[in-house]
Amino acid sequence: MLQPKKVNNRKTKKTVRKWIAIICCSLVLLILAGVGAFLYFNRTMHLISALALAKATTPGSQMLAKELEKSGVAFSSVTQSGDWYDIELPNSAKVLFSTRKSIQEQIASLQLVTSRLTIEGKKFSILDFRFAKPVIVF
Description:
Layout: H1 9-43, H2 59-71, E1 77-81, E2 84-88, E3 94-98, H3 103-120, E4 126-128, E5 135-137
Parallel strand pairs: 3-4
Antiparallel strand pairs: 1-2, 2-3, 4-5
């Protein structure tokens, strides 16, 4: 009569261990690649905070800082230079407001322009509201 072959338990255990090790290493590499991709793509996105880190020195710039906070515009600092206010945003962009125009209208224009530029995916470096029409420098 034919006897069934004996299965070598050591060999099967070794191959099972090898496959488990290969699968575990593959999973670790996949997780590391996913975390790396997340960190890479996450660093390019900038979230606009509703909280302002206000640095205002003159009474006029302090008043403008309060108005910006009230409107929910995030900014880093506000300084007054002659006939205009120099506002620095968290993304290092600068906004220039005129002291001769309505602050509320300029803030509303700032919100409108920044929302449109955000939708279009464009980033500006300087936004100047001192003139009749806003000047945007990319």
